Sequence to fold (98 residues):
Amino acid sequence: MGSAAGWLSLKIVDRAEASAPAAGGALPARHRLLISVPKRSVRLAIRRNRIKRLIREAVRLDGLFSRQDRTHLLKVQRDPGAIGLAETRQALREAGAR
Fold:
Protein backbone atom coordinates (compact mmCIF):
# COMPACT_ATOMS: atom_id res chain seq x y z
CA MET A 1 0.00 0.00 0.00
CA GLY A 2 1.09 3.56 -0.63
CA SER A 3 1.46 6.19 2.00
CA ALA A 4 -1.73 8.22 2.23
CA ALA A 5 -0.30 11.14 4.17
CA GLY A 6 0.37 14.34 2.27
CA TRP A 7 0.08 13.28 -1.35
CA LEU A 8 -3.08 15.27 -2.02
CA SER A 9 -3.78 18.97 -1.52
CA LEU A 10 -7.05 20.88 -1.71
CA LYS A 11 -7.71 24.49 -2.65
CA ILE A 12 -11.21 25.96 -2.41
CA VAL A 13 -12.23 29.06 -4.39
CA ASP A 14 -15.53 30.89 -3.80
CA ARG A 15 -17.34 31.60 -7.05
CA ALA A 16 -19.35 34.55 -5.74
CA GLU A 17 -17.02 36.90 -7.59
CA ALA A 18 -17.27 34.87 -10.82
CA SER A 19 -17.71 36.65 -14.12
CA ALA A 20 -21.16 37.66 -15.36
CA PRO A 21 -23.20 35.00 -17.22
CA ALA A 22 -23.62 35.00 -20.97
CA ALA A 23 -26.37 36.99 -22.71
CA GLY A 24 -28.76 34.01 -22.46
CA GLY A 25 -29.47 34.69 -18.78
CA ALA A 26 -28.28 33.28 -15.49
CA LEU A 27 -26.46 29.98 -15.58
CA PRO A 28 -27.43 27.36 -13.02
CA ALA A 29 -24.86 26.82 -10.29
CA ARG A 30 -23.20 23.46 -10.42
CA HIS A 31 -20.52 21.67 -8.54
CA ARG A 32 -17.00 22.18 -9.94
CA LEU A 33 -14.25 19.75 -9.16
CA LEU A 34 -10.86 20.21 -10.81
CA ILE A 35 -8.31 17.43 -10.49
CA SER A 36 -4.66 17.93 -11.34
CA VAL A 37 -2.20 15.04 -11.54
CA PRO A 38 1.03 16.47 -12.99
CA LYS A 39 3.28 14.34 -15.12
CA ARG A 40 6.16 15.46 -12.94
CA SER A 41 4.52 13.77 -9.94
CA VAL A 42 3.15 10.62 -11.59
CA ARG A 43 5.03 9.64 -14.74
CA LEU A 44 2.77 6.99 -16.28
CA ALA A 45 -0.47 8.12 -17.92
CA ILE A 46 -2.23 4.93 -16.85
CA ARG A 47 -1.48 5.71 -13.18
CA ARG A 48 -2.48 9.39 -13.57
CA ASN A 49 -5.85 8.35 -15.03
CA ARG A 50 -6.42 5.75 -12.31
CA ILE A 51 -5.73 8.33 -9.59
CA LYS A 52 -8.22 10.74 -11.19
CA ARG A 53 -10.87 7.99 -11.41
CA LEU A 54 -10.31 7.07 -7.75
CA ILE A 55 -10.62 10.71 -6.66
CA ARG A 56 -13.85 11.21 -8.65
CA GLU A 57 -15.34 8.02 -7.23
CA ALA A 58 -14.35 8.91 -3.66
CA VAL A 59 -15.97 12.35 -4.00
CA ARG A 60 -19.13 10.76 -5.43
CA LEU A 61 -19.39 8.14 -2.68
CA ASP A 62 -18.69 10.46 0.23
CA GLY A 63 -20.72 13.40 -1.03
CA LEU A 64 -17.80 15.69 -0.27
CA PHE A 65 -17.58 19.23 -1.63
CA SER A 66 -21.31 19.50 -2.30
CA ARG A 67 -21.50 23.30 -2.02
CA GLN A 68 -22.54 24.70 -5.37
CA ASP A 69 -20.90 28.10 -4.98
CA ARG A 70 -17.33 26.84 -4.75
CA THR A 71 -14.69 25.41 -7.03
CA HIS A 72 -12.57 22.64 -5.51
CA LEU A 73 -9.08 22.08 -6.90
CA LEU A 74 -7.45 18.81 -5.91
CA LYS A 75 -3.78 18.47 -6.79
CA VAL A 76 -1.60 15.40 -6.39
CA GLN A 77 1.68 16.57 -4.85
CA ARG A 78 3.60 13.29 -5.20
CA ASP A 79 3.05 9.74 -6.34
CA PRO A 80 0.88 8.00 -3.73
CA GLY A 81 2.06 4.53 -4.73
CA ALA A 82 -0.35 1.62 -5.03
CA ILE A 83 -3.55 2.99 -3.52
CA GLY A 84 -7.14 1.89 -3.54
CA LEU A 85 -10.47 3.55 -3.00
CA ALA A 86 -10.26 3.37 0.81
CA GLU A 87 -6.90 5.17 0.89
CA THR A 88 -8.16 7.78 -1.57
CA ARG A 89 -11.26 8.46 0.54
CA GLN A 90 -9.07 8.85 3.63
CA ALA A 91 -6.71 11.26 1.83
CA LEU A 92 -9.70 13.35 0.69
CA ARG A 93 -11.03 13.58 4.23
CA GLU A 94 -7.59 14.63 5.48
CA ALA A 95 -7.18 17.22 2.72
CA GLY A 96 -10.65 18.63 3.47
CA ALA A 97 -9.85 18.87 7.18
CA ARG A 98 -6.78 21.05 6.60
Notes: Residues 3 and 80 are 6 Å apart (CA to CA).
